[in-house]
Design a protein that fits this description.
242 residues, globular
């Protein structure tokens, strides 16, 4: 059975302006999407904060299909529709057509160093906070798109002060995306991006932490107890600041 954390929604954009419209809205280069290729990207607010993440494909009629987390489907469609009024594109939820499609395990996705943007974390992070520059979600050469100025500034000026880390902690309670993280002194240092229970007493999380607190050895998640943590390696390198 597929866990609700694993379920995907599918949003279709059809019409002659669909690709052009998305090119001015998302972080990835939509010209690279073909019938044989898949590309990952994010749609952001003008302030560079991610509304939703997606995996994009297209069909023979050049309809664009965006696969995203189920919880943000309505948010994603509303946001895209707001910007699409001057383009010949139709945006629709076609998730029912893909209901039987296999879904990636939530834990496997977490361990690959990828966190979803879900309803609770929509409009919370800029892409680099979830290490999307390391994961190929951002084109720094494609030109303007919504939020591009903020994202480029963070990239070229080394202004990313929070990054996502893979942590393990002893807990019987599963943290939720968006839960605040405090250090042993009660100071806010970050936010849970993703979490999965690995056994009855252990949880793995992807946590966005302030750089100056990235080496912490104990954290408090939400109103839970202070817990010792183990830092686990990510399967990719974090880009160095310029």
């Amino acid at each position: 059975m597929t866990n609700t954390a694993d379920r995907r929604a599918h949003i279709q954009l059809s019409g002659p302006d669909s690709r052009k419209f998305l090119q001015g809205q998302v972080t990835c280069d939509m010209t690279l999407v073909t019938g044989d290729s898949v590309i990952n990207g994010a749609h952001c607010t003008p302030k560079g904060r991610m509304i939703f993440l997606f995996r994009a494909t297209c069909d023979e009629q050049d309809n664009i299909l965006l696969q995203t987390h189920q919880s943000v489907a309505d948010i994603a469609i509303a946001s895209l529709t707001k910007y699409a009024v001057f383009f010949k594109t139709q945006i629709s939820d076609v998730s029912e057509q893909y209901a039987m499609q296999n879904n990636e395990s939530h834990l496997a996705r977490l361990r690959s160093g990828c966190a979803d943007v879900v309803a609770e974390t929509s409009d919370m992070f800029i892409p680099q906070m979830l290490n999307l520059d390391a994961l190929g979600y951002i084109s720094f050469k494609k030109g303007c798109y919504t939020g591009q100025e903020i994202i480029a500034r963070a990239h070229y000026r080394g202004a990313v002060k929070r990054r996502m880390h893979h942590l393990q902690l002893a807990s019987t309670v599963l943290p939720q995306p968006g839960d605040p993280i405090k250090d042993s002194e009660g100071k806010a240092i970050g936010t849970i991006a993703s979490a999965a229970q690995t056994d009855d007493a252990t949880v793995e999380v992807l946590a966005v932490l302030a750089d100056k607190s990235a080496g912490c050895t104990e954290i408090q998640v939400g109103h839970g107890p202070l817990s010792a943590i183990t830092h686990l390696p990510l399967p990719y390198d974090i880009p160095a600041s310029p």
